[in-house]
Design brief:
Layout (H helix, E strand, L loop, with lengths): L2 E8 L2 E3 L10 E9 L10 E3 L5 E6 L5 H10 L6 H6 L8 E10 L2 E11 L10 E4 L7 H21 L1
Antiparallel strand pairs: 1-2, 1-3, 4-5, 5-6, 6-7, 7-8
Amino acid sequence: MTSFCCSWRTEQGARNHPFTPPESKLLRCSIMVPSSTLGVLLGQSHRLAGGPRIGLRLARSRDLPGIGALAQRAGIELEGLELARLVRFHPRRRIVICATALLGQRETLVGVGEIDLGEGTGGQPTRLIVDARIADGLEQLLRRALVDQAGVVNRSLAA
């Protein structure tokens, strides 16, 4: 199993740079994290059984219309503030992941999930919305990505 360094020591002292070394001279790696815990589900495409390829990434402000449309298709009413909260979040307090798929000839947001970070949060997603057209396996993929990514962030916060 490959390990990656997630905290680098420099001549100036310890600095945390998730997964990328700083520009200054490196002395040694102070924390090694197995590659299986790096949230590798993000930034890759995943083939669902009998369905399209799904891409997972952190939510962005330009996802607001897509999340609104997804919630409407799922019959969930999200108010303006609740909807905006899904695209504007502090990455040390909450993670929101979007799932996209190429449907027809355009990328469509087909899932969104959020999970709170830190101790006492339960470690499970607080919201999962998936498109009923692609429900087979999408909810499990999104749940796993949220839990894995939250574990990575929680471990780095505890260090």
